[in-house]
Amino acid sequence: MMSSKTNQSELILDAAYKCVSEKGYANISLRDIAKEANVALSQLHYYFGSKKKLLQEIIKRMIGKYTIELEKQIKKSQSDKKDISNVFNFIKEALERNPELFKILFDLSSLALRSDSFKLMLSDLFDHLSGVIKECIDESSSIVDEFKDFSSSTLSRLILGSVLGVAFEYTLDANKNEDILDSLDALSVIFQ
Question: Which of 10, 24, 43, 69 could bridge 39 with an S-S bond, Cβ 3.0-4.6 Å?
Fold first, then answer.
């Protein structure tokens, strides 16, 4: 059973996540988050201290949740081997199911350009995601053979950058053009 303190901090984190995904970090205040969470402003200060620390907790939560989901998705294949196509499927499904995740990711990326603490957190996220992709490449002899002039680390960064680029384009597209998502399928074919 969760303690009252844990419940309250989780409620605040949920509200902050919602506010940031809808309006962006720069456009919200702690008052907005307190109102969304239906708590007193003083509780935000008690649990998190500042808007920056609250956002850092959102990032930690997001990193934990989605890296675990990505790792599970990659291991979904029938064999023991990790399948790189599952990376592309995961991103495609996440874009359709939870576009707020990407809005927050891109908003935080902008903040990371000006804040060392956010830069470090996002660099860690990208390093981790690249490492998960690298493991898939290392287990795929066809990718290693096809791109033998490049290290699996280089290829994992290329894939991650491509996937994030597609996600960014899709997030910005008001019409949610299916061709953008289909480019993830094309990437999957290229890296088979």
Answer: 43
